[in-house]
Write a structure and sequence with these properties.
The chain has 561 residues and is an alpha/beta fold. It has helices at residues 43-46, 55-58, 67-87, 100-103, 128-141, 165-180, 224-231, 237-244, 271-282, 305-318, 349-361, 429-441, 444-472, 494-500, 527-538; strands spanning 12-13, 18-19, 156-161, 195-199, 214-216, 235-236, 288-293, 324-328, 334-337, 340-345, 379-385, 397-402, 486-490, 503-509, 512-520.
Length: 561
Amino acid sequence: MAHDDDAPSDIPFGPEDAPWQKTFSDLRLVGGPRYGTPPSADPRDAYIGVPEVPFAKVQLPPGGLDPGQYAEAEALFRSHIDTQTRNFAGYQVTSDLDYRSRLAHYLDRHLNNVGDPFQSSSYTLNSKVLERAVLDYFASLWHAKWPHDERDPESYWGYLLTMGSSEGNLYGLWNARDYLSGRLLRGHDRGAGAITGEQAPAGEGQSPNAFHPIAFFSEDTHYSLTKAVRALAIDTFHAVGSTRYPNENPLRPGTPWPTEVPSTADGAIDIDRLAVLVRFFASRGYPILVSLNYGSTFKGAYDDVAAVARTVRGICTEYGLHRRRIRRAATGDHDERSGYWLHIDGALGAGYAPFLEMARNVGMVDQAPPMFDFRIADVNSLTMSGHKWFGTPWACGVFMSRTGLQMTPPKSSEYIGAADTTFAGSRNGFSALLMWDHLARHSYDDQVRLAAGCDRLAGYVHERLLDLQHRLGRDLWVARSPQALTVRFRQPRAEIVHRYSLAAETVPVDGVPRTYVHLYVMRHLSRGRVDELIADLHRPGAFPPEPSADPPCRPRRRVVT
């Protein structure tokens, strides 16, 4: 790369504050102005600072860091991460991790699970044997038919994600789009040709919207769904409603269409309003794609999957979308499939709720969230994040569907020796090792006790915050959705938010915006840490003052006589 002659030459860089140009190796083999571009401005001023880790200490000059500089930088970063880990309470990830003593050996090994987990590969440095064991575990936990059998369309198919549930949402919606659009499924890919369709019963004609799926998801849905529909060019009910039917919003005729399906106060999807919206589009022949939350990001709410499934199935049956024949004009081949798809984003809840259900069944807790898994025949795809309830040092997760719903993969790559049926291609083989290790060491009994304990602790947090609200004589907006692991309350001052890594979200309540934070009860959180937070929140000035509608009165001047 050419040298930028106009770039400043004296910007301090790295732990020695030396100009960037003077930080090359002593050998000068790669030094000089011909290699690399110096900074155009001081990066320390350009980026958000982390006070505990001065950026200069971790900057990477071309000559690298000497052993002393490396030790100082790593010690600063380690101290910062260890401190934040001890207090981490605002997000649904588990920090109680213990992998190093057993699995450090594999950090010096390359593990890449490229391609389908159920196909061998010439790329032998993989952990697919462990991946298959983990997938079977979740197939059983989620009541899917297992083991996977490519000849059995009712058996499960899935894979372990390199990203978290955001990748699972992408793949699930991609699968749904292709399925509802009438594209070829795996096992139905003999030949190619234009796709035509006919509505059941035969002879009634075909809607012009028959292969134009419409997506529905609630206002409490994780933002990854918005990214997914945009990346996959899937139309939402808002997009189509606003452009094709601008004055026909069935929830409030004559007003703009809502951007998402409204939620209840607890954060679950409003099924009655969803039904109105689904009926509007199903009656016009559009296939229906519904994504539901099972443990929503901020409120921890669980959509009632079974009730939504009954509602959507009933409406789609009424309009002939429950069973459709998809025919290829070139070959005359056809398959039969429904005109709706239910995807479940169970990032947290799909890992936690099955054990809370078991705890309820043996009397350890009073209630559990509603059913969500493959016991419901209309559930087509399901995703979960491995780093949340189970706990891994990095993001990972599980995607699961049925074998008969699989998309046709790209042309099988001879290079890797397996069909690439996944989203990521090269996939992190360490995640399978970590999840296998955790599940091997934690029995169902262990998981049930952990789930029941976290449920009780969430109740304790709720009670302590309500008590604090009473003692302060101030509405802290304390709320907990049913069986949620999170409790939300009024945002405190910035130092407390930072210390406990509390997540914030502004929510309109009766038309007035309120900025909440929430605390997530994961298994690393203790009552002692909760009590420390309550003590910090009880101190004077922990919360910003209430805004006043009237200007403050001036003090009266005292008249001396």
